[in-house]
Design brief:
Helices cover 0% and strands 56% of the residues. By secondary structure, it is mainly β. Strands 1-20-17-22-15-13-14 form a 7-stranded mixed beta sheet, with no helix packed on it. The chain starts with a strand and ends with a strand.
Length: 232
């Protein structure tokens, strides 16, 4: 089953400095029938104006993956971690027993990110943060795992969840496939372009909630960049 969630029907908010769309209930957008997809709890599509951002705030017991689409995000946290993650790179924060962090766009241009929250397999633990580049050329025509809770995904950023996050770029007409267990919860969003997923068209920034599919066949209808979450 594939449930299409068009971008223009998503919940959201416009704070001036931040334009946000929420694929699931978040902040002032609340839908009791849309609280997540399996262990995937949050997928925010954020546009952050130059020289603005999120001041220090707390998190705990959540795996937070930030996929930078345009611009860059600068992170600082209560553990002393500091880092700038630019387009094509990914950062992961395991909030664990509790951490405070800030995220600012210190660039002269709008920064666009997907921020993805996945529930951990267990609470607590020492918070951690990490960032890594995943050049688009290296994931052209194939899905590459960028964050994972599975030890076999050795090149991915580690998360403490029964989940993996994948990304690919596809030229128009190219196809990528993904084998999944039917019991898993998959969620796919093209950052740009449009794709067909098992016969269902998904346009840029639309969401596709997938369950009960043993295999995904993803064909680009136009040059596309997309992110896929496979969660329990």
């Amino acid at each position: 089953m594939i449930e299409l969630r068009p971008f223009d029907r998503l919940g959201g908010a416009d704070h001036g400095w931040l334009k946000a769309k929420h694929h699931f209930s978040f902040a002032s957008y609340y839908d009791p029938n849309n609280m997540g997809h399996g262990a995937l709890r949050v997928w925010n599509d954020d546009e952050i104006a130059p020289d603005t951002g999120f001041p220090p705030h707390p998190h705990r017991d959540m795996e937070i993956i930030t996929y930078v689409r345009d611009g860059a995000i600068t992170h600082q946290d209560s553990l002393g971690n500091k880092g700038r993650t630019q387009a094509g790179d990914v950062q992961v924060m395991s909030a664990g027993s509790g951490v405070r962090h800030s995220e600012y766009n210190l660039e002269p241009e709008t920064t666009r990110i997907f921020q993805i929250w996945i529930e951990p397999t267990q609470g607590g633990g020492q918070p951690t943060w990490g960032s890594k580049p995943f050049p688009k050329a290296d994931r052209s025509g194939k899905l590459v795992t960028i964050a994972s809770g599975f030890a076999t995904d050795t090149d991915a950023l580690p998360i403490r969840a029964d989940a993996r996050v994948l990304a690919t770029t596809l030229k128009a007409g190219e196809t990528a496939t993904y084998d999944a267990e039917k019991a898993r919860h998959l969620y796919l969003v093209p950052a740009v372009g449009s794709v067909e997923v098992n016969g269902v068209r998904v346009n840029a920034r639309d969401g596709a909630a997938i369950h009960g599919e043993a295999k995904l066949t993803i064909t680009a209808l136009a040059d596309a960049e997309l992110v896929l979450v496979d969660a329990a």
